[in-house]
Amino acid sequence: LAEKNREAYIEYVGTTLNNLAALQKNIRKYDEAEKNYTEALGIRRGLAEKNREAYIEDVGTTLNNLAVLQRDIKQYDEAEKNYRKALTIAEELAKKNKAVYADSLVLQLNNLAEVQLDLKKKDEARKNLERAFEICQDNLGTGLIDSLQYEENKRLLDLLKNSK
Q1: Is there a contact between 73 and 62 (Cβ–Cβ < 8 Å)?
Q2: How far is CA 31 from its chain centroid?
Q3: Which H or E element spans position 91?
Q4: How far is 7 from 114, CA to CA, in rounded Å?
Q5: Is 131 exposed, middle or buried (0-12, 13-18, 19+ CB in 10 A)?
Q6: Rounded CA gap, 70 and 127, in Å?
Q7: How far is the C-alpha of 34 from the C-alpha of 146, rounded, in Å?
Q8: Any idea what the Cα angle at residue 150 is, between residues 100 and 25, rounded to 5°?
Q9: Taking the model in full, what pTM does it have?
Q10: Which terminus of the chain has a lower count of CB atoms within 10 Å, N or C?
Q11: What is the pLDDT along the chain (164 residues), one digit of tens a residue?
Q12: What is the rounded CA–CA span in Å between residue 71 and residue 124?
């Protein structure tokens, strides 16, 4: 269908590739997963160029998914780059709608900090974790922050403090 009417179906191709890559990652077909995340990312970036507001969140999701894969296969430098890009998008979205995206911002900060710990960048990791913790503290009880994110942030901060 996408070959006959690319404009109408390309969004679904991007979503399908992203979902396929997630399945491939879960069954340890890492090369195939990376290829499909990369292709999905290209499609989603193209869509975001035409309609940023409608598709930029999908770009951030795919960047995060790709970074998770890269961290799993110990491509820490690449994972850090993609987490940074996903964080930039989460920050942009949270500025526009804190109620919807505060939790995503905390997730991205925690993910970036974890890979920075892998890379022995403790100072950078600490700054990101403290920023995430501050967002959590500011939004406790509002329903904006998932309690699991808050607990993960606390766990990572404790881990960092105990690793001195």
Answers
A1: no
A2: 19
A3: helix 76-96
A4: 38
A5: middle
A6: 22
A7: 28
A8: 80
A9: 0.90
A10: C
A11: 556 656 777 999 999 999 999 999 999 999 999 999 999 999 999 999 999 999 999 999 999 999 999 999 999 999 999 999 999 999 999 999 988 898 899 999 999 999 999 999 999 999 999 999 999 888 877 777 777 778 888 888 888 888 76
A12: 17
In single-letter form, the type of residue at position 136 comes to C
DSSP-derived secondary structure letter, 144: S
Q: What is the rounded (10 degree) CA torsion for 156, 68, 131, 160?
A: 20
> What's 159's DSSP letter?
H
Place of tokens 């997730």: 107
Q: What angle do CA 150, 125, 59 make, to 5 degrees?
A: 75
CB–CB of 93/60 below 8 Å? yes
